[in-house]
Write a structure and sequence with these properties.
Pfam families: DHO_dh. By secondary structure, this protein is an alpha/beta fold. It is built from 12 helices and 13 strands. The model has no long low-confidence stretch (mean pLDDT about 95). It binds flavin mononucleotide.
Length: about 375
């Protein structure tokens, strides 16, 4: 049962707040929502109020994975907090973990507009930011003095610049960013290595296994002190995906996040009229759902003993999160579901997960991971 206050909050978001927000430029809304979130994170009473209204706790949801304790399996995916402003507030609305970034060695002002668009019928967002971020040094300054109320991850990717002409230059750029974070005092819990952003300039790619091997070889030399999860693409064939996983399993990588945005503008989950409005960018939300689930299934079946899986793409409800968990994901990330459903959805997903576990006679979330294989 959803608590009355959470239910009311959802109704208010759907009927009052969302209709207004969805009339305003999405980038403007994103920037201002993040600023409001940051402000709430600086005020203790606001955090307590949010905690009471939104967060849901249950020991059935707590897991220790890769040495990190996650109070619940629902995390904020990379891309929403690209300015590292929300680490103090997201636990209060119920998230179990959250990723900052993607952050690159050198700052990037973002691709040409539009960087963001809405596809309400497709339950999707068009994303064309191309790693808009302030660069690793600034993020180190912002986060070094903070204590985090939940596990925070830093997503690292290649600087979006045509000046990086070769694979070698790109690898040096990525390892430089990792070095800055390693040498900092940031108390982060994990890294994400984002090799799958579809919106970057130039033709550098880490997809062919030999390119991926070279990148991971150089990253291994850094002897990173935090676990690394690789953010995977979802547009590759099963064979291509497996050959990437073959490489990944030869390196000290804790797991894979499956996965990134939908590149295919013809995906059947995209409303054909809506999608025609965008001649650029790639898509989040429901168009990611099917392929992400197929690849979670494949990964759990063949690599489940070696790689932990974070499921991501199209999660809007507890039922959605539970499906990804039953297919093999130990943790789940989301962005679009929160934007379409409202911030109360995080607590509702956690509460719903506990109900679904009980319905199925399970005592702990870990018992559900991969049961559907
Ligand atoms: C506005 C926006 C920006 C994103 N930026 C990034 C990013 O910088 N790095 C990354 O790894 N993924 C990024 N993504 C992809 C998400 O992390 C996620 O993989 C994808 O949106 C599918 O999840 P969802 O359906 O819950 O949104 C972005 C997604 C959105 C909506």
């Amino acid at each position: 049962m959803i608590t009355p206050i959470s239910y009311a909050s959802g109704l208010t978001y759907q009927n009052l707040i969302k209709p207004i927000l969805f009339k305003i430029d999405p980038e403007l809304v994103h920037v201002h929502m993040v600023r409001v979130g940051q402000l709430c994170g600086q005020i203790n009473i606001a955090k307590q109020l949010l905690q009471t209204t939104y967060a849901y706790k249950d020991p059935m949801l707590t897991q220790k994975i890769a040495g990190i304790t996650f109070a619940n399996p629902i995390g904020l995916a990379a891309g929403f907090d690209y300015e590292a402003r929300l680490t103090q507030v997201l636990a209060s609305i119920g998230f179990g973990f959250g990723t900052v970034g993607t952050i690159t060695n050198v700052a990037y002002q973002g691709n040409s507009r539009p960087m963001l668009g809405r596809l309400p019928k497709s339950l999707s967002l068009m994303v064309n930011k191309g790693f808009k971020n302030e660069g690793a040094k600034t993020v180190v300054q912002k986060l070094s003095h903070l204590h985090f109320p939940y596990p925070v991850g830093i997503s690292v990717g290649r600087t979006n610049s045509l000046q990086l002409k070769t694979q070698k230059q790109s690898i040096t750029d990525i390892t430089s960013a990792f070095r800055l974070f390693e040498q900092s005092n940031i108390k982060h819990a994990y890294y994400e290595l984002n090799i799958s952003c579809p919106n970057l300039l130039g033709h550098i790619t880490f997809y062919p296994p030999k390119n991926l091997r070279k990148l991971l070889t150089e990253i291994k030399k850094l002897q990173l002190t935090k676990p690394v999860f690789i953010k995977m693409p979802i547009e590759k064939t099963n064979k291509e995906f497996e050959s990437m996983l073959d490489v990944v399993t030869h390196f000290p990588i804790a797991g894979v996040i499956i996965g990134n945005l939908q590149k295919n503008h013809q995906d059947p989950a995209l409303d054909p009229v809506e999608v025609k409005k965008f001649d650029r960018g790639h898509f989040s939300g429901k168009p990611c759902w099917n392929r992400s689930n197929e690849l979670i299934t494949l990964t759990h079946k063949h690599y489940g003993k070696k790689l932990m899986i974070i499921g991501c793409g199209g999660v809007f409800s507890a039922e959605d999160a539970y499906i990804k968990i039953k297919l093999g994901a130990s943790l789940v990330q989301l962005i679009t579901g929160m934007i379409f459903e409202g911030p109360q959805v995080i607590g509702q997903i956690n509460q719903g997960l506990v109900q679904l576990l009980k319905r199925d006679g399970l005592n702990h979330i870990s018992e559900a991971v991969g049961v559907e294989r």
